[in-house]
Amino acid sequence: MKKLLVLAIFLRLLVAAFYFHPDIKTFNFQASFLKKGVIDIYSYLINNKQNLPFKEEFVYFPLSYFALGGYQIAASPILGSGFNAWLNNASSNAFVTDPSIFKYLIVLKLPYLLLDIGMAFLIREFFKDKKKGNLAFTLWLFNPFTIFLIYAYSNFDIFPVALTLLSFLLLRKEKLLPAAITLGIAAGFKLYPLLIIPFLFLYGKTLKEKLILSVTPLVIFLVICAPFFSTAFVHSALISGLSTGIFKSQFVTLGVSILFFYGLILDKKINIFNYWIVLFLIIFSYALFHIQWLLWLAPFLIIMVVKKPNLGLLTFVLAVFAFLIPILYQDRFMTFGLLRAYSIYFDLLPTPFVVVQKIYDPANLLAIFHSIFAGGSMVLTYKLLRKEQK
Amino acid sequence: MKKMIWFTVSAILFAVFILPGILALGIRYIPYDIQPPLEGVKDVYGQFTISQEFMSQEARLAGIGMTIKNPNLKNKKEFFLNLYDDKGQMLREITYSGANVEDGSYLKFLFDPITDSKGKKYTITLSNPSGDEEEVLGVFYTLNKPFWIGKMSFNSEEQEGGISLVTFHKPLTKLGVIKTIYTSWLSRLL
Fold it and tell me: Closest residue of B to A89, CA-based?
């Protein structure tokens, strides 16, 4: 097992060092203001927009800022004196040709590595059978999907994902209050864990349990956000496209509503774990999702596949299509742009969108992939919810 | 599970070490230098044309890249980039349609390679003859031009700075591109 762990870490470090997504530079630039004593990053970025090399607002929730900024402070001796200049360098070519880029990428992604490996151990805890636990542990460590999702796309969603996984583990052990608190903390990074709250309300057996599970995460979330509540915070984070984008598709609202009423009226014993999976299958089926969001579901699918191996093939096919959808977006950094740290020559390659455009309408192909994903998700949903009725 | 481990190990090693080389086969033109900073805009329309002298630093000159504004995407007309040699003889003419130019997009004007371009002086002229004041095309210039970018003229008058441009060159062999990419990567790594 130790050898496997070493191999898994080695593979992760390779991708972490050489694959570059510009988001990591953007949010680390924003988080760097913590070491200058800035607490309210939302107002600061808006008020100082004119003087900053990057004009983007901070679209994430407060704990993201403090986690990333706090880590930068801790890692500053390793990052070195040139790091701030690198963060502030607005020349898109110069910063990728900086010889220190590989060091910066590894150091900035080290917290992801710790959480990622920690999640492998958490996943093992979901199983009473040691053999199955080890299988899930290995499957998490050795699947290319999550390695690329986390390290190539510089996915800091791993913070809330790890916390959400911990929350579900606590829930499984019937530690309701700690589970609810952990979920609230996860929402302090990104809003999406709160989507499960209506279902947690249904899951609670008594009114007290229902209130603990549904109110506590909201209270924790509000406590985290309260000190930052301002117009800047509301516009940058709370109602930003990133937070509200999920519900731009009416089909998402429809699907989530159907799931809720199904749980309310037809399902006598809710399996909250399966509801979490179905909830995000609905979202990814109908919303224009960011590739980073796929991580929200990944550890839960690994656990599901080990528990129900007959769903493995379908899950694998869905994972492939879930990857193909964002790869077709007109965004270089879904594909070849990730290789800019090797050479800026990769800017010269056309995106898959442009290549497809020469022979077929890429928007139509995207719709086809979405429909296939939605179809497979419906079958998976049926399998998961039907089992619960037996 | 062993198969899954092997698959993942192979996939990652392939993605990190082999894939960049394979993708490099798709690179048809190599830029010389990076684009200088964008520091101002000259509006080209009607008889207002912009010219730029430059010295090609590599052989097989095959294109010019520059950033162009098309405010509110109003220009949908044809515009031209002409390439002249140092004797004023036109070598290439590339036509573009404003309908395909997004505001602030980086355009590549590609043409048949000029084999012996290394060390030779050229002039490009960008014109938008059918555009009126509402259909200007903004050409970005720089005040920090590299040594090989020479005199810039707007409406035949010499201006400070130079068009923020990049020259593209056809690589001699595909293997050469792959070697350049891996060399650049390894030189920064080691």
Answer: B37
With contacts defined as CB-CB under 8 Å, which chain A residues touch B7?
Answer: 144
B124 and B82 Cβ atoms separated by less than 8 Å: yes
| CA dist., res. B92 & res. A295, Å (int) | 50
Give the domain range for residue A140. Answer: 2-389
pTM: 0.87
Classify residue B160 by its DSSP letter: S
Query: Does A336 touch chain B if contact means CB atoms closer than 8 Å?
Result: yes
Output the average pLDDT for chain B: 92
Tell me the shortest Cα–Cα distance from A80 to chain B, in angstroms. Answer: 17
CA angle A223, A227, A230 (to 5 degrees): 120
Task: Please tell me if residue A142 touches chain B, with a CB cutoff of 8 Å.
Answer: yes
Could you tell me which chain A residue has the CA closest to the CA of B15? A15
User: Based on the structure, what is the number of domains in chain A?
Assistant: 1
Could you give all domains of chain B from N- to C-terminal order, each with its CATH number?
Answer: 2-26+175-189 (no CATH), 30-170 (2.60.120)
Measure A3 CA to nearest chain B CA, in Å.
Answer: 12
pLDDT digits (tens, 9 = 90+) for A45-60: 999 988 888 888 898 9
Q: Tell me: the pLDDT tens digits for A311-324?
A: 999 999 999 999 99
Distance in angstroms (rounded) separating the CA atoms of residues A183 and A177: 10
Q: List, in order, residues 6 or more apart from B34 with CB less than 8 Å away.
A: A91, A93, A94, A97, A344, B166
Which residues in chain B (162-181) have CB-CB distances under 8 A to chain A?
A: 177, 180-181
d(CA B34, CA B57): 13
Whether A339 has its CB under 8 Å from any CB of chain B: the answer is yes
Q: Which residues in chain A are contacts of B180 at CB distance < 8 A?
A: 343, 345
Q: Give the pLDDT confidence of B30-85 residue by residue, as tens digits.
A: 888 888 888 899 999 999 999 999 999 999 999 999 999 988 888 889 999 999 99
Residues A349-368 have a mean pLDDT of 92
CA-nearest of A96, A99, A93, A138 to A120 is A138
